[in-house]
Every structure is written in structure tokens, then in C-alpha cells.
Specification:
The complex is a heterodimer of chains A (299) and B (660).
Chain A (H helix, E strand, L loop, with lengths): L1 E10 L2 E11 L4 E5 L6 H8 L7 E6 L2 E2 L4 H4 L2 E4 L11 H11 L5 H9 L15 H14 L4 E5 L7 H18 L2 E5 L3 H7 L2 E6 L2 E7 H5 L2 E7 L12 E8 L2 E7 L2 H9 L5 E6 L2 H9 L6 H5 L1
Parallel strand pairs in A: 3-8, 3-9, 6-7, 7-8
Antiparallel strand pairs in A: 1-2, 1-4, 4-5, 9-10, 11-13, 11-14, 12-13
Chain B lengths: L9 H35 L12 H11 L3 H15 L6 H9 L4 H33 L5 H28 L3 H29 L17 H8 L3 E6 L5 E7 L3 H23 L15 H28 L4 H28 L7 H22 L15 E7 L3 E4 L2 H16 L1 H4 L2 H4 L5 E10 L4 E9 L8 H14 L2 H9 L7 E13 L4 E6 L7 H20 L15 H6 L5 E6 L8 H5 L15 E6 L6 H9 L12 H7 L6
Antiparallel strand pairs in B: 1-2, 3-4, 3-5, 5-6, 7-8, 7-9, 9-10
Helix pairs in contact in B: 1-2, 1-3, 1-5, 3-5, 3-6, 3-8, 5-6, 5-9, 6-7, 6-9, 7-10, 10-11, 11-12, 13-16, 18-21
Classes of the chains: A alpha/beta (299), B alpha+beta (660).
């Protein structure tokens, strides 16, 4: 659905996007992860039609996004900081969205609104708490019945219960209507629960773009112990990181876990455990070489 | 395949109106008060107010509207309304969200524009409509006047909306945009003032350069009220009653030009918006090509004026040679230019780290251009100092020294041009008189040309007393011909007394006798009274004195022009009388044309509607050399004893005002 090919964007001397390539399948929930300054918000602003790339191509369903009113009626954007008109209440905003999005479902909006009784629809949105404002933004976006939802740090500022509610709304829309979701977040644990595809971004580029399953099976953590020193590992095993404590060694190994396990087993370890990596760990190990400081920033 | 974009979005339009309607309402209320309500109040009191005979309600309405400003409304309302409408452009959150909605920039722009026009211009149209209804109810049929005013306000408001939107596109900061709006509106005037300040300090003969600033169409807020204001002309009968009246609705062509310019600005603004990079939110300047223009413009004009002011301040402390003053100005301008250049870069780039090689070369290029410009001023490349207009272009030429004389006959114009050219040919010494003749008393004289095109060329020169033995032969050769020309008795009579000098009666004449009053410890004026005389006898008496005064002029004793300080000249004070001498010249069949009023342009160009004057009071400073006049005054009984005559020196001495 989303095709980003070789896109560059410079802000003065700084390359915010540097030949970025990204592909999001229809119906996917695509998590965009990366450290601060990686270019996540920049690419989201390009996909929203706010920025125009210096070079490269950005299309959604084969159509360029920039200044494409008809195409933009088919997707909604929730930026990291949400804007509402100064004097507008929730119902005013609903009327505004209704005129902008032909697929807007007023009935659905009212139904969702009823699930959030703490929100007074007659109160000016700007006077609501940050969390409530996000809730209103989600209600409006979901009720617009978009084919694609672009979310930049969407659940920041929401309490855990509210996060779950919001994600549950989105997931049900994905399940029922095949909604495609592109979401950028720092909260990797949360993304791990909801995303089926992940793009890891740094320095204005996508470093890795895979399905979550694929990603999780491409890196393995193996804990092992030998009677003596760690023997020389077969050259087929690509070790990203090695930590040794006495005779116990922890290896982060790139490649298919089963193959790695078989090759190491041939070395007759006293003990061997193959553990799956979390998205956070993958993120850190993948970016370790790219940006060493990321580890300190994220954890 | 790109889909077709729309120009208008109703939902956005409603949102825009919902945020700006209050401004429109306030504006409407103010206009209502200024126009129909004011008129209704006037009508309610019409019979009680003591208007001139013949003054009608229609004339009252036209008069009222002719006093209501045209340009001032739009300049404020335009920036207020467009600023609120396009507010989202200045805040990242608002900007990103608005542009991520399925609304094209075209739609955002034109919807914003239309809503701004509606809120800014609808109150004007409604006010005109209400005023029309009020006028119609009173059977006052001057609708053309009402709607011409509305057209004037609407056209200028549209222009200001164009300027406002282009200003909003030019910056990513709302405050800076408002500053740009002010700059764009007054850019031409500010540039002119900057050049005039510089010229007045640095250039020969330009010390009065700040005079005669006339508003051009490039400063619409001021110009439109001059050019498009409804003009009412009343014609009176012999009893002073209004016989008839007429009015004109001038400047329609300017309004049409302003509308055309507004449309052009709106189109340019739209193009800027289409190509606007939204990452420039919060940037000082959002349009890349404006950055060098702004940098150079700011650096050049600020440094030029500041450099001239530095030179002027040093000159005030210690007189300098003309060239020295220019060198000081050039060095100051270059140094200040560098500072302003880097300060502007810091503003634009929002960082103190602007000292790069690239910028240094840019600065060097700018400094070279600035230096060239200032040297061009010094070399008078633009022919400002040496400018003497062609005789064919001159309507009149006036000289203001001790007295004002204005010449309009071709031979006089030619003669004054020759005097001026002769004066300028020895410019080198003349422009350094304050330095070379520092100890000779000095004064000023002004030559002013009124051109047939309506413009003025005015030059003022510092001059020193030609009677001093310190002045050179060259200096005398340049200045004495001017004095000789001005001190010609026939010219004095014709231009100082006036055009009716030889065909007039003297209905009034007074001469003050000064007698010491012990109680007041001062000299008090007393006047001879001739109550028993008939008007004819009194006029004859006055005319005898007038004839004696003319004889004194012929002998070179009255209305004499000298270059030098008339007020601190002790020798002059010893012969100048403290007694006042006034007389009135009158001819009820021939209009009196005042050289002074012509010189200061108080008549304007509208001679047809000018209220004619047939008499003028003349004040003459007598000296003890005016023996003919003094004798006639004594013979005719205006004073009886020579003790009633006192010189300025004697008065100051008696009062203890003289410095030891």
C-alpha cells in the first residue's frame, strides 16, 4: 500500500531522510522504530502530505501523496502533537471531520464516544487533558473509516487502560475492515504486541524491514557453558555480541536459530539454552553498530 | 494519477469565519458609529446648528463622508483578519495537522482568502448600505458619494489583504510577519526617508532634504486619502452664503490600480504558499530568495543612515571639511554594515554561528557594493547636488533668505537658474564655508523649484557674510550676484511687498512708539491715534508714509538681504529699530498673490477654487537708515519725539540683555 523509494530530505546541511526505502503491505500493522532524530516523524510528515521530498517517490496505492486531496480522504493521521481549533468542542470537530472525510461514520463516532463517558462532547477540546485529546483524535480517526491510519507516537500520555482500549479499537478495525496501520513509537514492548511488520530506522534510512516473526527468528540469544574456554565457533555463525561470565557465555547470533543451535551443539557444550529476543533487544543489537549511544537512550 | 484539487472548502470557511467574525463585528460597529450614526446625530441637530445659509443636508452628508478616512481602516483590519485566518502557518502542531487533512493548499489558501475578504469588506458594504438607507429616508440623494467611499475602503482593504498575505507567507513567525507587513506597507517611504536623512547630512545643499516628502502610490495608506478623498467645493455669493456647490470623486484610476496590484499580490502569495516548505515554520524568513534581499536591504539602509548620523554628530561637535565628513560616514557605514549584516544572519539562521567563509565573501561583496554606492553619492553620480532643472520644466523658482521671493516669469527663472549654476560651479569652497570661515557669521539661503510636473526641488546652502574681509574673491564671485539680484529695489517691491505694490491703497498702517514704563520695568508700545480723521484722510496719511518707504527701498535701506547672522550681529542691532512698523496693502479689484504662500505651497495646485485675497499686512523691519520713512512717520504724527525711537541694541542694553 505504501511505497517509499529512495526518498531524501535535507534541512539545510542535515539529511533527515537519506535514500529511505519503505514498503507497507495493505492490512499490515507496521511499526516504525528508531532512536530520536532517526527521521521517523519526518517520513510520517511526508506520508501525511505535509512535507515534500527533495527526491525519490512516495506513493500510497500507486498515487503520490503530496497535495492529493482524494487520496488523503482515504487515510487519517494522528501526529505526536494534536491540533484542534481553538473554540471547537468534540462535536464541532466531528462535524468538521464529517465534511472532510466522505466515509465518516457519525453513528460509529457516537458509539465510540459512549465508551468514553469521561469526555464531555460539549467542552472545548483544547481544555481537555492531553490523554482525552488523544482519545478524541482516535475517535475521529476511527470514525472516518480510513483505509490507512498513520500514527506518530500515538499512545503517549495515555494511561495503560486507555492504551489498551485504543489499541483494541484499532485492532478490531484492522480485523473487520482490513485497516492498514503505520505506527511510530518508542514503546517497543507495545509495538511488539500489536505490529506484524517492523521497520528499524536510523540516520534517515530503514536499516531493517521485516515481518516481526522473521525479525525475531533472524537473531537469537544463546546461553552456553563449556568445560574449558569457549572454543572457536564455526565461521557460519555470525556473533553480534558476546558476554562471558566465568564459563558461561551469552551470544547474540544472527541467523536462523535452529541452524545456529545445531552447529553449536556440535561443539558439545555443557549447557545450551536458545532464547527468543524481544523487539527491544533486536533493536538495540541491530543499532549497536550504527549508533552505540542508542542503548543508553532507550534503556 | 493526481486528483483534481478544489479552490474552496465550506467546512474550513465556516471555521475561519467562526474565528474572525468578532473582528468583523467590531469593525462594523466602528464604521456604523463613524458613518450613519454620526450622520443621524448631525441630522437630528441640523436645525439647531448655525450652518451657513444654503447649507443643505445633502451637503452635510457629503462633508461628513469627505472627512471619513479611507486607507486607515484596511491597514489594520487586513492584518488582523488574515493573521487569525492563517494562524496555523506559524505553529508546528497546527501547521502539520492542517496540512495532513485532505484539503489541498489551494483550497486552504483560497478559502482563507475568501473568508478574510468577507470579514474585512462585508462590514464596509453593510455600512454603505445602512448609510444609503438613512440617506434615502431623508431624501438625500448622494448615493454615489457613499458608494465611492465604500469602493475606496474596499479597494485599499483588498490591497492590504494582498500585502498581509504575502507578509504571512514571507516568515514562519507571526510577529515577524506583522513587522514585514509594516515594512512592505511603508517600504518606499522608509527608503526615501533613509536616502533623505543621508542626503541631508552628507550632501551639499540637501540640508532641507526632509522637506517636501510627498506620499506616492507606493505608500497607499497615506496616498489614498490624498488622492481619493471626496472633494467638496462651495461657491459663495457676496453675502457669504453658499450659492452652489459641487463635488468630485477623484482617484478612481488609483483604486483600480490598487485592485489590480492586490490581485497580483494574491496570485504571488498563492504561488509562494504552493511552494512553501512547511519545515520553515518558526523560521525568521520562510522564502529562501528573500534572505539575501533582507540581509542586504537591512545592512545597507541601516548602515547608510547610521554612518551619516555618526558623521553628523561629529560635525556638530567639531566642523569638518566636506570630504572628511564623507570619509567618516563611509567608514562608519562600512563598520556598522558589517555588524548589521552578521546580526541579520543570526536572526535568519537562529544561531550565533554565522561566521563562515562563504558568508564572509558575501559580506565582502556587499561591503564593496555599499562602498561604491557611497562613493557614487560623493561623486554626485546621480546628479543630485548639481541638479538645476531645465527652464522649460519650471513653474516657478523661489529664494528664501531674509525674505521670500518667488519668480515665475521666464526671464526671472532663467536668471535664477544662472545664479544657481554659477553658485554650484564653485562648489568646492562653498561646501566648506563652515570650516574655512568658522569665525565669520553665517546664515542659510534656499532655492526652491516648483516643477510643472508638480514636484519640488529644494536646495539649502550655508553661506557667510559677504561683507566680511575674510571671505575670498572666489566666494564673493559665487554669492554676491545672488545678493545683488535679491536686493534689486523693483524685485523687493514686487516680491516682498507683493504684486499690487504699485496699484494699492494703504488702509492700515501702524508704528509703535516705545516709552519706558517704570512700573513694568520695560518699554511699552504706544500708538498714535487719529480718531478724528476721515478714512480718506487716514489713507492719504498712510500712503504718504508708504511712498517714503518705497523711496527707502529704492535707496537700499529696507528689505535688504544679507548673508550672515542677522540676530547676533551687533552692528546691525545698532541700526535696527525695536519699533514695529506694519502696513496693509489692498486692492479690491486685483488678487493679492503672496510669494510666501506660493513658496510654501499653501495655495496648492487648485487655483480655480482658491478663496482670493485682496489685501495683505506687511511687517517691515526699519533701520535708522530708513530716513525717508522715519521723517514721513514723524511728519504725519506717528511719533513726535526721537526719544520714542529705540534701536534693538539700545533696548537690549537698557534691559541688561547684552552679554559682556
Amino acid at each position: 500500500m505504501i511505497e517509499v523509494n529512495n526518498v531524501t530530505k535535507r534541512f539545510g546541511d542535515f539529511a533527515a531522510l537519506d535514500g529511505l526505502n519503505m514498503h507497507v503491505e495493505r492490512g499490515a500493522i507496521y511499526g516504525l522504530v528508531g532512536p530520536n532524530g532517526a527521521g521517523k516523524s519526518t517520513i510520517i510528515r511526508h506520508l501525511s502530505g505535509v512535507y515534500k521530498q527533495d527526491s525519490g517517490e512516495i506513493t500510497i496505492d500507486g498515487q503520490p501523496v503530496y497535495e492529493n486531496e482524494k487520496l488523503k480522504q482515504r487515510f487519517t493521521v494522528i501526529p505526536d502533537e494534536i491540533f484542534f481549533f481553538t473554540q471547537a468542542n468534540t462535536m464541532d470537530m466531528m462535524k468538521f471531520y464529517k465534511t472532510l472525510y466522505p466515509t465518516f461514520d457519525e453513528g460509529l463516532f457516537k458509539k465510540i464516544l459512549s465508551c468514553f463517558p469521561e469526555i464531555n462532547p460539549k467542552k472545548m477540546v483544547r481544555t481537555l487533558s492531553k490523554g482525552m485529546q488523544k482519545q478524541v483524535a482516535f475517535m475521529l480517526s476511527i470514525a472516518a473509516r480510513p483505509e490507512l491510519m498513520i500514527l506518530d507516537e500515538p499512545v503517549d500520555g495515555l494511561d495503560p487502560v486507555m492504551r489498551r482500549q485504543i489499541w483494541s479499537l484499532i485492532m478490531s478495525d484492522v480485523a473487520e475492515h482490513g485497516l492498514t496501520v503505520l505506527v511510530s513509537s518508542h514503546n517497543l514492548r507495545e509495538l511488539e504486541d500489536v505490529c506484524d511488520h517492523v521497520g528499524i530506522m536510523n540516520h534517515g534510512k530503514i536499516l531493517i524491514e521485516r515481518s516481526l516473526d522473521e525479525l525475531q527468528t533472524s537473531i537469537t540469544k544463546i546461553q552456553l557453558a563449556f568445560e574449558d574456554e569457549l572454543p572457536t565457533l564455526p565461521p557460519e555463525i555470525q556473533v553480534l555480541k558476546r558476554v562471558s561470565t566465568g564459563r558461561v557465555h551469552t551470544l547474540i547470533v544472527k541467523g536462523e536459530p535452529r541452524a545456529a543451535e545445531q552447529r553449536i551443539a556440535a561443539l558439545n557444550p555443557l549447557l545450551m539454552d536458545v532464547l527468543p529476543l524481544t523487539l527491544e533487544e533486536i533493536f538495540i543489537y541491530e543499532l549497536g553498530g550504527e549508533n552505540y549511544a542508542v542503548k543508553e537512550i532507550i534503556f | 494519477m493526481q486528483s483534481k484539487k478544489s479552490f474552496f472548502n465550506l467546512a474550513l470557511f465556516k471555521k475561519n469565519i467562526s474565528r474572525t467574525w468578532i473582528v468583523g463585528l467590531l469593525y462594523f460597529i466602528i464604521l456604523l458609529i463613524v458613518m450613519p450614526i454620526q450622520f443621524i446625530i448631525n441630522l437630528a441637530n441640523f436645525d439647531e446648528i448655525n450652518y451657513e445659509e444654503g447649507y443643505t443636508k445633502t451637503l452635510n452628508l457629503i462633508d461628513d463622508i469627505s472627512y471619513v478616512p479611507i486607507g486607515v481602516w484596511g491597514i489594520f483590519i487586513a492584518i488582523a483578519v488574515t493573521g487569525i485566518t492563517f494562524w496555523y502557518l506559524f505553529f508546528k502542531r497546527d501547521n502539520y495537522m492542517m496540512h495532513s487533512f485532505p484539503v489541498s493548499r489551494r483550497s486552504l489558501y483560497f478559502t482563507g482568502l475568501i473568508s478574510s475578504i468577507v470579514v474585512s469588506i462585508l462590514p464596509v458594504i453593510l455600512t454603505a448600505l445602512v448609510t444609503t438607507i438613512v440617506a434615502a429616508a431623508e431624501k438625500i440623494y448622494a448615493f454615489d458619494v457613499i458608494w465611492f467611499w465604500a469602493l475606496g475602503v474596499s479597494a485599499t482593504t483588498l490591497l492590504f489583504i494582498g500585502i498581509a498575505i504575502i507578509s504571512l507567507m514571507a516568515s514562519g513567525q507571526i510577529v515577524t510577519s506583522i513587522i514585514f507587513y509594516g515594512i512592505f506597507n511603508f517600504l518606499y517611504l522608509m527608503m526615501e526617508v533613509a536616502f533623505r536623512i543621508t542626503a541631508s547630512i552628507l550632501m551639499f545643499g540637501m540640508s532641507n532634504a526632509m522637506n517636501n516628502i510627498s506620499y506616492t502610490p507606493l505608500t497607499p495608506v497615506f496616498f489614498v486619502d490624498d488622492a481619493c478623498k471626496i472633494k467638496v467645493f462651495k461657491m459663495y455669493d457676496n453675502l457669504g452664503n453658499i450659492k452652489t456647490y459641487t463635488y468630485t470623486l477623484p482617484g478612481l484610476k488609483y483604486l483600480l490600480i490598487y485592485i489590480a496590484v492586490a490581485i497580483a499580490l494574491i496570485v504571488v502569495s498563492y504561488i509562494l504558499y504552493e511552494f512553501k516548505k512547511l519545515e520553515t515554520v518558526q523560521d525568521f524568513i520562510a522564502i529562501p530568495f528573500l534572505k539575501p534581499v533582507f540581509t542586504i536591504g537591512m545592512s545597507f539602509f541601516i548602515s547608510m543612515v547610521a554612518g551619516a548620523l555618526v558623521a553628523g554628530m561629529i560635525e556638530a561637535l567639531k566642523p569638518m571639511y566636506y570630504n572628511t565628513r564623507f570619509i567618516v560616514a563611509i567608514i562608519s557605514a562600512l563598520v556598522i554594515g558589517c555588524i548589521v549584516f552578521y546580526a541579520t544572519q543570526m536572526l535568519i539562521e537562529k544561531t550565533f554561528r554565522v561566521f563562515s567563509t562563504k558568508k564572509f565573501f558575501f559580506l565582502a561583496g556587499y561591503s564593496l557594493a555599499s562602498l561604491t554606492m557611497l562613493i557614487c553619492l560623493r561623486m554626485d553620480v546621480f546628479n543630485v547636488e548639481n541638479k538645476v532643472p531645465d527652464a522649460a520644466d519650471i513653474q516657478w523658482v523661489g529664494i528664501d533668505s531674509n525674505y521670500v521671493m518667488v519668480f515665475s516669469r521666464p526671464e526671472d527663472i532663467s536668471a535664477v537658474r544662472d545664479l544657481h549654476k554659477n553658485f554650484l560651479s564653485d562648489k568646492k569652497e562653498l561646501r566648506d564655508v563652515n570650516k574655512i570661515y568658522n569665525d565669520v557669521d553665517s546664515g542659510y539661503f534656499t532655492i526652491k523649484y516648483k516643477l510643472k510636473s508638480g514636484g519640488f526641488i529644494e536646495r539649502t546652502y550655508s553661506v557667510v557674510n559677504t561683507e566680511s574681509d575674510k571671505v575670498s574673491a572666489n566666494y564673493l564671485a559665487a554669492t554676491q550676484p545672488i545678493l545683488d539680484y535679491l536686493n534689486n529695489p523693483t524685485r523687493i517691491k514686487e516680491h516682498v511687498i507683493g504684486n499690487i505694490w504699485d496699484d494699492c491703497t494703504i488702509p492700515d498702517l501702524s508704528f509703535s512708539q516705545y516709552v519706558y514704563n517704570e512700573e513694568a520695568d520695560d518699554y511699552w508700545p504706544e500708538y498714535a491715534e487719529f480718531e478724528t480723521l476721515s478714512d480718506k484722510e487716514l489713507t492719504d496719511k498712510n500712503e504718504n508714509i508708504y511712498q517714503a518707504f518705497l523711496k527707502d527701498i529704492d535707496e537700499g535701506n529696507a528689505f535688504v538681504t544679507t548673508f550672515g547672522d542677522r540676530y547676533n550681529n551687533t552692528e546691525l542691532a545698532k541700526i535696527t529699530l525695536y519699533n514695529d512698523f506694519n502696513f496693509t496693502v489692498a486692492n479690491n479689484k486685483k488678487e493679492y498673490i503672496s510669494d510666501e504662500m506660493t513658496f510654501w505651497d499653501w495655495y496648492g495646485d487648485d487655483t480655480y477654487y482658491r478663496t482670493p485675497e485682496y489685501e495683505r499686512s506687511i511687517f517691515a523691519q526699519l533701520t535708522t537708515n530708513c530716513t525717508n520713512t522715519l521723517k514721513a512717520l514723524k511728519d504725519e504724527g506717528f511719533y513726535t519725539d526721537d526719544s520714542q525711537i529705540i534701536t534693538t541694541y539700545e533696548y537690549n542694553k537698557a534691559m541688561g540683555y547684552l552679554e559682556e
